[in-house]
Amino acid sequence: MKLWGGRFEKATDKKVDDFNSSIRFDYRMYKEDITGSIAHAKMLKKQGIIPENDADLIIKTLKEILSDIEEGKVSFEIDAEDIHMNIEKILISRIGDAGKRLHTGRSRNDQVALDLRMYLKREIIEISELLKELLSVLLNLADEHLDTIMPGYTHLQKAQPVTFSHHALAYFEMFKRDLLRLKDTYKRTDVMPLGSGALAGTTYPLDREFVKEELGFSEMSLNSLDAVSDRDFAIELASDLSIIMMHLSRFCEELILWSSHEFSFVTMDDSYSTGSSIMPQKKNPDVAELIRGKTGRVYGDLNTLLVMMKGLPLAYNKDMQEDKEAIFDAVDTVKLCVDVFTKMIATMKVNKDIMLKGAKGGFTNATDVADYLVKKSLPFRQAHEVVGKMVLYAIKENKALDEFSLEEFKKFSPLFDEDIYSAISMETCVNERKITGGPAKETVQRAIKISKEFLDNFKIK
User: Which residues neighbour 37 within 8 Å (Cβ) at sequence distance 6 or greater?
Assistant: First the structure.
């Protein structure tokens, strides 16, 4: 018989049992469910709501059930619906009527809200640790490639020279924001809902503050209706995870391009590449492509949560059972992708000479030629026009700007002198951009120092 079956005269159809059940996916919250139940039992004992002997037996048996689950000795049942009812059913089967006292002053509505919050708090910490590892690898790459000059792009057209160090730090900033977003989401997840009951609290003298402290929450919900029906924290986390995937996907898109023969800026390690079943020469960046593909999957999880919640009246509705598969999938996908991505970029080879050659092509120093003329007193718009004509000439003559003779330079402006050559070398173009946030070596070194301090001091809570 169902634990809620007193009101019913007929058994639930087996297909409805299967349709209604969530144990296939919410079993993963068994530890949170048992931990929450132990705290609840301790509070019931403290408040004299249930007999001390029963409370002690409940707590002891719940700990045994936890150990048995972790040792693979427990099988969950579909007809018990979810992890909460499964554990309660196991408890009652072991200790009888004493186990039936556990649910006093509690509903599955506030119980599931508690379990999900506890579970996602743990996952946020784990994802944050994975991101910190990724950020550490990016800093290592930045340290290693302070002098590795490469072309910077806009519109996927060569624009200005930068360094690979500067480029890596751009992604550091993205993932740093992701880490800060997770920290912010953690705060709103760290709110204890137990004691809200089904929707209107309870008449029992529960000590919610005791449970909050016992479970390590920093805050306690102030409205029982909102506490059982709120899934903002899951939606917010899914949004954070979607942005993480977007950042991973952007980097992967670049790595896919860069590892092609046309670019050859990087060579992916054999252990993070695959081959072709028909073309023996192929070395495919499948890991990067798969991360790029999985990004849409996480976006779909976010959309599932948003659409699920958009029309729900207060308080709890069964629709909300759909929250778990979506958020669990998003969490699992991001953890897998961040981990494999970190190892992939840590093992890839950066082809410095080819990057430098790429920077020298495409007139990436054209802006610096214009700036040279501006520093010689020519207004910028005029300088821009002069250099535009020089680029057109260079294209026709099939030469780079720094390959012009001084006479050729002077054809376009008498302001050019011998110092133009040093002014538009790749090294000068990069290292004269010393403004905060720029690619100059000394600026990037300062950014690395600041970034290392951030990473060393960051804590999720």
Answer: 58, 62, 87, 88, 102
Whether residue 372 is found in the same domain as residue 313: no
> In this model, does residue 77 exceed pLDDT 60?
yes
Which residues, in sequence order, are CB contacts of 61 under 8 Å at separation 6+? 91, 94, 95, 99
Q: What is the pLDDT of residue 10?
A: 66
Q: With contact defined as beta carbons under 8 Å apart, do 285 and 271 qualify? A: no
Whether 190 and 303 map to the same domain: the answer is: yes
Classify residue 362 as left (phi > 0), alpha (psi -120 to 50) or beta: left
Both 244 and 344 in a single domain? yes
The pLDDT tens digits of the residues spanning 279-299 come to 999 999 999 999 999 999 999
List, in order, residues 6 or more apart from 19 with CB less than 8 Å away.
Answer: none
> Residue 50 sits in which domain range?
5-104
Residue 4 has pLDDT above 50, yes or no: no
Structure tokens at 302: 């976010």
Q: In Å, how far from its chain's centre is CA 196?
A: 31
- Burial of 134 from C-beta contacts in 10 A (0-12 / 13-18 / 19+): buried
For 200-246, the pLDDT digits (tens) are 999 999 999 999 999 999 999 999 999 999 999 999 999 999 999 99
β pairing state of 349-350 and 266-267? antiparallel
Three-state SS across 334-399? HHHHHHHHHHHHHHCEECHHHHHHHHHCCCCCHHHHHHHHHHCCCCHHHHHHHHHHHHHHHHHHCC
Residue 264: inside a domain: yes
324 Cβ neighbours under 8 A, 6+ residues apart: 22, 25, 26, 116
Percent of the chain with pLDDT over 90: 93
Residue 169 lies in a domain: yes
List, in order, residues 6 or more apart from 239 with CB less than 8 Å away.
302
**Full-model pTM:** 0.94
Identify whether residues 98 and 207 lie together within a single domain: no
Which residues are designated catalytic?
Answer: 155, 276
The beta-carbon contacts of 222-227 under 8 Å, at least 24 apart in sequence, are: 224/110, 224/195, 224/196, 224/197, 224/199, 224/200, 224/315, 225/196, 225/199, 225/200, 225/314, 225/315, 226/314, 227/110, 227/113, 227/191, 227/193, 227/196
Q: How many other CB atoms are there within 10 angstroms of residue 406's CB atom?
A: 12
